[in-house]
Amino acid sequence: MELVVSSITQRGDFFLKIEFKQVRSTLVVKLSGEFDMMIADKLRREIDSRLDSKQISNLIINLEKVTFIDSSGLGVIIGRYKKINSQKGHMYIVGASPSIEKILIFSGINKLIPIYKNEQDIINI
Amino acid sequence: MNVRNYMRIEFPSLPENVSFARACVSSFAAQLDCTLEEIEEIKLVVSEAVSNCIIHAYNSRSNEIIVVMASIGDERELEIMVEDSGKGIADIMQAMEPTYSSDESRMGMGFTFMKSFMDNVEVRSKVGEGTSVTLRRTFMYHDKEALA
Question: What is the DSSP string of A105-116?
């Protein structure tokens, strides 16, 4: 028997995998890989289309499996914060490794967006 | 600096080459026996410099050329040079200001990261001809026995 496995791979998937999950009015975006300009535009479009089309008021960016971030990645995060904030929603970052958290703190993003260890911590607020 | 080893790569201004460039330079710099944290910082500054070439110098055109060179000196110095032949920077001082970005979707932190994680950042640019960014850092000797 021949087993055929097919998958659709888009340009950029090799670098950063994006998973979306919606829990009531909260969109959770889980990223895995390196978060730079290669994926920034695609991610921006994908998140914005969900924010615009669905009843979403809160956004959680899960960086647990992100191994690298630069200012292109930070730009996507801060841009989504501005959008969510203008809609009176809340945004959180979870799971950042110590090296990623260092960059988030250095950029001052932590002063705008709370950083939590995991998604459960936000649910327990 | 007394150059002990050097590398030079040239690639088209494609977004996928940002990760290629930082991987190349960081593996080359690993000869300095840097800490993992230092390697992460090298990756970040290379990423910022190469992203700047693609986004700003070439306005995201993908068929232009970026050159990245790196040298290691006898005294644990690292020098990285990133060059483009793009539009150039009219006001270098303004471009290097924190949170200044000519592109709203970016954070404007590129040069701030470069200045923070390297000892010295030198920018040479001519409008219509291109820009070269030279990043220098001397790494401390890590006392492995003391750390053990």
Answer: HHHTGGGTS-EE
Shortest Cα–Cα distance, B143 to chain A (Å): 22
Task: Quote the number of domains for chain B.
Answer: 1
Cβ contact A57:A89 at 8 Å = yes
Q: Cα separation of A40 and A37, whole Å?
A: 5
Contact B54, B66 (CB under 8 A): yes
pTM as predicted = 0.90
Q: Among residues B127, B126, B129, B46, which one has the least CA distance to residue B85?
A: B129
Largest CA distance in chain A: 57
pLDDT for residue A101: 97
Using the Cβ of B98 and the Cβ atoms of chain A, whether some distance falls under 8 Å is answered with no
- The pair of structure tokens assigned to B89 is 């920077």
Per-residue pLDDT, A4: 46
Q: Residue A1 has what pLDDT?
A: 45
CATH number at B30 reads 3.30.565.10
- Indicate the CATH number for domain A16-123: 3.30.750.24
